[in-house]
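Researcher: I need the complex structure. Ligand is CU-O-CU linkage. Inputs:
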Amino acid sequence: MDDQLIKGNKSIEAMSRQLTLVLVSLLCVALAADAAVVERIFHVPIILLFLIVKNLTISRLCERRVITAVNGSLPGPTLKVSEGDTVVIHVINDSPYNITIHWHGIFQKRSAWADGPNMITQCPIVPGNKYVYKFNVTEQEGTLWWHAHASSLRATVYGALVIRPRNASYPFPKPYREVPILLGEWWNANVVDVETQAFLSGGSLSNVSDAFTINGRPGHLYKCSKNHAYELEVVAGETYLLRIINSAVNNQLFFKIASHSFTVVAVDASYTKPYDTDVVVIAPGQTVDALMTADAPPSSYYMAARAYASAGLDGPPFDNTTTTAIVRYANSSNRPLRPSMPSMPAFDDTRTAHRFYTNLTGLLRPETPAVPLHVDERMFVAFGLGVSPCEPSQVMCNRSRGAITASMNNVSFQFPASISLLEAHYNGLDDGAVYTSDFPDNPPVMFDFTDAKLNTDPTLTALLYTEKGTRVKKVKYGATVEVVLQNTAMIGAENHPLHLHGFNFFVLAQGFGNYNNATAARDSYNLVDPQVRNTIAVPLRGWAVIRFVANNPGVWIMHCHLEQHLPLGLAMAFEVEDGTTPESVLPPPPSDFPTC
Ligand code: C2O
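Model: Output:
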């Protein structure tokens, strides 16, 4: 009996030891779930099993085309992470092009080397080479995305980057399902060739796309596309979180679903106060998280996107086609031959765009950073298109008119050729050989920026001429920077989406006309609950005021996310100095960092 007792005791001991083990390993799993390492391989393009390097060949709009795409899919793989995770992506470049990948909207705190813009934070990954992008995703959650940041390869090299809250708690009722909706743009041509042609012509050739896409597919309204529509099956009564991303190249978009409406809960991976709307307006680079309840009579409905062409119908040509996908109710016996179509806003419906863009406000939570009230650096940046003498290599350029360029404070940004800005900054090469730290705080002259006469009045046309340069704005670590972004009517007036790398910013105010420091503008600043973004669509013939804290050492480009304006020079960069604590110092580049 004693024996038995001892045995019994022993087995209880063993059991409890086992239980402890189980508990410890459960705890480990829980901790790992707390901050996991998400490691992936991105092949650009895929290598097939028999080791023949192959591009992805796909059929679109009656043509078979070879495209550059990650892991053989369009869009590329969705990266799903939780806030706090570490992301490690091995990018293997087996394409014939120089490539980099940018993690759009990721802060890259102390990992500026992984940001990705070509010649800004790195030299490109040349064909046959690889680079490991490694970064932490901290203090941000929501929808972001990744895309190529070299030439116009992002037309096909892009995908979603979804950051879930660490404890899975959303500031809204948990949706039934989450669905990335990537809006894209498609050319029946090699996009790199299209870009080269536009450059050689000095901007006289416009590169209008052939289609827009939803999750890589154009939809029923295009030729040969009967089977090329994305379908979302929904359960009646359930609520879906649509993670909408404008990954199109040169166009802002209106997005609607017939008979359904949305509640916007986040933009650019920042929560907003719930905002009800039946139309989403979204510029390239931006994201919108929208709840959609399947509350229409069970049937099939089109979701659709088409251009918001802010320059208007008399402006430069644009892709005026409409992409569609299908929202199909599960188990619905009602299967119409043609799903009903939402009525889309007019292409030049600036009123609808402005209402959407300006009605959003930030959601205040205990962890939401407050708007800093003290400003250390004030800038007034006038930006838009302009002209420069044709380069000798621009063989198709109109020499008497000159080449179309673009500028910020009249500096037409030139990418360095032999070393990235970040590397030059890290090595202290700011003596002008690569760049100068003298980006102007103001335009060289003040004038009526929004006056169309700029383009015709011979006494004003001198203002159109831009100067090329690689000039950056140097700011101290931790400085609060306020920038008035003044859109000009030079060459043509249009809404430009400006994207800042490395930071989110508060959008304090927006308006039409010339920003006027002396009058109401400052009184209208929202310092309480402004929307927080990484990409701001600045109204045409208008302005926006942004404010951010430069708490991230490195070199960060701010540029127009209409891809065709980047090589024209619609960019500048912030050089954020090191701080004094170990956490505020830019670490050295990783060992596999690509150099030129
Ligand atoms: Cu989404 Cu500099 O880019």
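Model: Summary of the prediction. The pocket of CU-O-CU linkage is lined by residues 102, 104, 117, 147, 149, 285, 499, 501, 557, 559, 561 (CB under 6 Å).
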